[in-house]
From TrEMBL:
Keywords, comma-separated and alphabetical: Glycosyltransferase, Membrane, Transferase, Transmembrane, Transmembrane helix
InterPro entries: Nucleotide-diphossugar_trans
Membrane is among the record's keywords: yes
Organism: marine sediment metagenome
Alphabetized GO MF terms: glycosyltransferase activity
Transmembrane segments: 207-227
Protein name per UniProt: Glycosyltransferase 2-like domain-containing protein
Length: 254
């Protein structure tokens, strides 16, 4: 029981108990609202399957506090089990192709050319949000139960004049899928498809949403379904299709 464990081991921590699984977006919104009510100037979103450097907050605040145009910032993320390999050093989005990707993924962490990388989005496993950003654009969209909620938040910030940056000096190590489990399950396939459709329906030009975006998503579905079928996992393809269908039914403000 993680709640009792935290109460016993860290009694000085203010623990908020949700009585059901609210999902990543809405669950974090509970914490963000609480932090703002307590007068916080910055809110750090951090996954529970990460290990942070001792200077993480200092490295992030040294950058953000000196530039008020930065609305969201986050660290470089390395693999926990391969500590010299990059998992995320910035996020990019193609609204025309219906695709997102991590800068530097699987590359060896080495000498950097610059400390601050402009990015389209910062992964939700570790991101620092300025109070003014939340006041202007709001919190995570709770319609994203999981996946794409971070991308949506960052694009809203950018569309409202804020910069989103990845600070290369700031580092954490991520046990990738430590919470949801390794590999592609039917539940993860469903949530990825559902959230992906909602996101690109909201942001992609209509022509591309009905042409290249479905092709991109379908290509990903087929590739992963083949891989999972080879692993003797069934139901992945059906879960993707159901996610696509349910995602189309979500309300999106364009």
């Amino acid at each position: 029981d993680s709640v009792n464990y935290l109460k016993e081991r860290f009694p000085w921590v203010e623990l908020i108990e949700n009585h059901k699984n609210l999902g990543f977006a809405q669950g974090n919104n509970v914490g963000i609202k609480y932090a703002l009510e307590k007068g916080a100037d910055y809110i750090l979103i951090l996954n529970n399957d990460t290990i942070v450097s001792t200077s993480l907050l200092r490295d992030l605040l040294d950058v953000v506090s000196k530039d008020r145009t930065i609305g969201i910032a986050g660290p470089k993320v390395l693999y926990y089990h391969k500590k010299d390999r990059i998992w995320f050093a910035g996020g990019k989005v193609s609204l025309l192709l219906g695709n997102t990707w991590h800068i530097g993924n699987r590359r060896r962490d080495g000498q950097k050319s610059q400390n601050i990388i402009e990015e389209d989005y910062q992964t939700g496993c570790a991101l620092l949000i300025r109070r003014e950003t939340v006041n202007k654009i709001g919190m995570f969209d709770p319609q994203y139960f999981a996946y794409f909620e971070d991308t949506d938040l960052c694009l809203r910030a950018r569309n409202n004049g804020f910069r989103v940056v990845c600070v290369q000096d700031a580092k954490i190590w991520h046990k990738v899928s430590g919470t949801t489990g390794r590999g592609l399950t039917s539940k993860k396939a469903y949530l990825k498809a559902k959230s992906g459709v909602k996101f690109f329906k909201k942001y992609s030009p209509r022509l591309f949403y009905y042409t290249t975006v479905p092709i991109s998503i379908l290509g990903y579905i087929i590739l992963r379904s083949v891989i999972e079928r080879l692993k003797k996992k069934r139901g992945i393809f059906n879960a993707f299709i159901k996610g696509l269908r349910d995602g189309r039914n979500l309300i999106s403000e364009r």
